[in-house]
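Hey L., structure's done. Input below.
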Amino acid sequence: MRTILLTSFLTSIITAPAALAIDLIGQTTSKSPQKIVAEVSGVVESTSAQRGDFINAGQTIASIKQQDFILELAKQKANVSLAEADLQLKNSIYKRYIELREKKSISPNELDIAKADYLSAQAQLELAKVELQKAELDLKNTQIQSNIQGHIVMRSVDSGAWVNQGDLLYTVVNIDTLNVELLASEHDLDELTIGQPVELWAESVPGQTLTGKIKRIGVEMDAQTLAYPVEIEIANPSGAFKPGMSIHATTTLSSAAASNSAISQ
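Output:
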């Protein structure tokens, strides 16, 4: 009788599930989307990139009419030349006044005035150089570029439109790496741990699965979903998974939870 009971107990352990799991659902989101804004005000001359286009880092995707910026640059270059000439003249006068003062041919006040004129000319040259740098930067910023490689997911500019500095023109996202936010019930939290492996798939991408690890587990319930957020970061080099996709996830229980569940069976 004892032999039968022992055999039955061992059989129940052997035939118990090897791994316990829970199923979660969620959604993919992009990581750090880049907001591209107008750095200068002006008329949009061209917009070569459209929503959904793939672009490279540094690629020009729109441009602002350059004529006024080219003229401003020429003006500031001329101002620097004038300031340099004025500084040279004031420097020559100041040095001459130093010699005259040593011979007591001019008063101390006249020397002080010459020095002040010289220092003022120096400051005017520095100011002119700053204005020149600004003009060069403004001209460069008429070419609107993306700092990252990715896809355009939002476009709010058309050729011929006037844009002001700071206006949002495009949003670009890179989907080589995606965030996945899963929704967990309060009952699931005890069975989830940071670093726990998760297998994910989407019905819109049949036959393809990704594996990630739990990165964060929320401590406050979302008021809209009435669930706790569980965040995972996944590599997506093929680009098969897109931001906004519904995601299914299966994860093995934490070791403690799995042991407790096995013992209770």
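The radius of gyration is 34 Å. The chain has a mean pLDDT of 87.

-- N.
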